[in-house]
Amino acid sequence: MAVAIPAKVRRPPRAPIPLRKGSGGSHIIPDTETEPAMPSPDQESRAAAKDRFTELKKVRDQAHETAEKAKAAADEAMWQAIAAELDAGNALQLDVVEATGFSRDHVLRRTKPYRQN
């Protein structure tokens, strides 16, 4: 004998989730006694802050550029040394692949400009 399965089982209603202050709820009013309003900065201090932000961005960009140059130099030195090892017959491309985790095609493409034969 088949048991009837109800078409839709209703879940009990969930309890409302209490919102914390500042969680995006538009109905929450800040408590001005415990949390005073933040003062708005004047135009002069805003302009000075923007200048500081611009200078910080320049320093960051310069550091990134320096790091990229160092990375490129390290890559070139590594591939030149690998190519020299391969030319000397001390290792196979397979050995480079196993040691570095790069694909054989990648090793071939990166060492080709530095290979002698």
Q: Tell me the number of helical segments per DSSP (H or I, 4 or more residues long).
A: 3
Structural class: mainly alpha
Please trace the helix and strand order, writing H or E for each element.
HHH
Relative strand content = under 5%
Which value, in Å, is the CA radius of gyration?
Answer: 32 Å
Largest sheet: none
Q: Which regions have little confidence, pLDDT < 50, spanning 5+ residues?
A: none
For the residues shown, what is the average pLDDT? 85
Shape: flat
Q: Tell how many strands the DSSP assignment holds.
A: 0
Portion of residues within helices: 40-55%
What distance lies between the first and last C-alpha atoms, to the nearest angstrom? 83 Å
Compact summary:
This protein has 117 residues and is an all-alpha fold. It is built from three helices and no strands. The longest helix has 46 residues, at 43-88.
Topology (SSEs and partners):
Layout (H helix, E strand, L loop, with lengths): L42 H46 L4 H8 L3 H8 L6
Overview features:
0% strand, mainly alpha, 117 residues, 53% helix
Characterise this structure.
By secondary structure, the chain is mostly helical. It has a domain at 46-114. 53% of the residues lie in helices and 0% in strands. It has three helices and no strands. It has helices spanning 43-88, 93-100, 104-111. The longest helix has 46 residues, at 43-88. 4% of the residues are buried.
